[in-house]
Amino acid sequence: MFSRLPFKTQKNYVIIGFVALPLLLLLTFAYYPALELIRLSFTSWDGLSPNKPWIGWSNYKEVFSNPAIFGVFKHNFAYFAVGIVQNIAAIYFAVVLNSKLKGKNFFRLLLFLPYILNGVAVAYLFGYVFDTTNGSLNYLLGQLGFDALSKTSWLGNGSFVNYTLASIGFWRFMGFNMVIYLAALQSIPNDIYEAASIDGANGWQKFIRITLPNIYKIIELNLFLTVTGALEVFDLPYILTKGGPAGSSETFVMKIVETAFQFNNYGLASAMSVVLLFFVVIVLSIQRFLLKGKGE
Amino acid sequence: MNKSNKLWDTVKYISLVLAAFAILFPPYIIVVNAFKTKDEFHTKSTISMPDSFLYLKNFSQAFKQADMLNAFGNTLFIIAVTLILNILIGSAFCYAVGRFNFRFKGPLVGLFLFATIIPAITTQVVNYKTIQALGLTNNLMGPVLIYVGADILQIYIYLQFIRNIPNELDESAMLEGASLIRIFRSIIFPLLAPATATIVILKTISIYNDMFIPLLYLPRAEHVVVSTSLMRFFGVNSGDWQMIASAILIIMIPTAILYLFLQKYIFAGVTSGAVK
To answer: Does domain A73-250 have CATH number 1.10.3720.10?
Structure first.
């Protein structure tokens, strides 16, 4: 039946039929919530009652002035700091695995492995590693003679618990960053290196003058993933510490979830979400801007 | 020159071996302890081998207690339905957009591409209410709808891919009298297979590993998925590490096996998915 219709009519049916549903889904689950979030952020809605009283900017004032809310970003900073080190390690291993080397496929396979493992399983895996009394890290430290260190409560000390948690992220995502860097390195044509060798450049010079400029875009991409990842941390602290000890490992997303779904303060939670959304957009705009400045 | 090359080679290997140790040490501990009896666990050191790798009682007990049959079933259901919808809707959309010109096409594609800057984790406060209004909280279709609606990875991948399928194929099929639906079904969709494979792999891994969405939308025990089953099990058995170790292993093994067999596609998919 359909095939008898003229192509022009068919075309119109196809366009409308194939575009309508994804567009509807996109509007319902991406744009509507983003806009509704902004509207709710100016109300004191409790998530249930039909009326959503308008309270102006006071949710935002609360977000920025209450250290129990905005101060939580300090905890997220640990993930960012560790993420930078993670990127440096990823570039290093990408360069290593891009050189002539026996067994490089094996090492690539191994270094990437943590990324595909279930996040909750990885969290508990490290729950055991970092356990104070039974944990394998403290056992190892004891065997190596670091007796004082081997009694450390890695997840129970507020001053470095975030770094402990972030190191799990390092373990999990370094290989992911590395594989992206590696793909970028492999796309640099070899004759540039050969020409540089003829001109007498050493390995380090080649790395600084050829490798780094050529993967600049990918470094930015990975840094963007690192920053947004650090802003959006949720599962590791939620599973391993529940935000403890004494709230010192709570992250901003944990705060949002708690505010909305435990305290039913949807207005405030929306304002917090908008702030987070705003930060991500800023980071992305900076990245896009830098990219444009660099040409390519 | 030669001397420094040798030094560099040594540094390379030492760093790789250290990295390999750091990566394998935590899973090693889990593997050796998952096969220990409770007595063994308390008398032996954590890093020692178990008496026998044939002691499987921890596994069977963990499997039963964590309700993993149900969890794997639910996870598989969510993955399968999400994938089918994603692939159908995504490929059809990209056929319409990639092959025809129409008014507002530019802004339409822009709308989809722009949506990636909205992090899904920020919009759940509102999405939760939407799912509730649709009556889909405590329903496996709730997470499916979130995964299908808010993620547009498939559209990126298909859009890139469809550009490389020559238009002449469509034209000659049209001359032979095939309808557009037929062209999509028997020519375009099969040729998109490599893109479809990438999408299947990436989404399977990300849904299998996700914990945030099921935690939020599927609080009931009967709707347990792989990630949440482990959390429940830990709550009941905390301290019984030999049991938890076996539960961790059961959950880690499926993706690890998938990874070993599909490594080539996974590397390719991750690279193209990230650089989108």
So the answer is: yes
